[in-house]
Design a protein that fits this description.
The chain has two domains: 145 residues, Jelly Rolls (Sandwich), CATH 2.60.120.10; 74 residues, Orthogonal Bundle (Arc Repressor Mutant, subunit A). With 224 residues, the protein is of the alpha+beta class. It is built from eight helices and eleven strands. The longest helix has 27 residues. It starts with a helix and ends with a helix. Helix content is 43%, strand content 23%.
Amino acid sequence: MEDLLQALSQNPVFAQLDEAQRADVLKSGLSRSYDAGGVIVFAEDIWPYILVVMKGRVDGVMESREGRRLIMVSFKPGDVFWGLAFFHDNARMPVTLEAYEPSHLYVWSRDRLLPILLQNGKALWELSRLMVSRMQQASMIVEGLAFQSVAGRLARLMLDQFAGADTPTVTRNLKLDEIAALVGSTREMVCRALYDLSNKNLIQITRTEFVLTDQEGLEEIARQ
């Protein structure tokens, strides 16, 4: 419970609640654990809940009729996700939530949490800000899919992988299928695009690592 209390106190929405209100939130949270690949809720389900990720990673995934996957958003420890039905009756989930790795989270129903939030205008304001941020994020993803090439999206993902690294080398911790889901393409297209970046000497690819060799060139591709 101490870990959950700390996670709530650091979240901009729950941080606005007073001590008694946070105590009520703690009492009503349901602990849930999932193995890697476990589904928390399917797309099109009506899910009037929120969750806080305590351990692991949870992905919001869309899947086409042809079976192509797109990871719309990922949630790490401390992040909060709100189902659409928390706000609108019978609103269906736009994505499937699934555990990327063994994950532990807490879940609250709207019936339990909404009365507490309605007592605190600042918490509702922060919730509104969070929703706007989510919409901006979704808009950027859609814009990238609509107007940016696969090579451009892949270059942007590569730059994100290198961001914050102390060296120009990062471990290949994403499989081709995962990269394809992140950039909204297919495994085959991603494989060709990766080796095209390598042939242009923008990155080097080994069995276990990516090496950044030309950041400016990669940034130029990312703008395409």
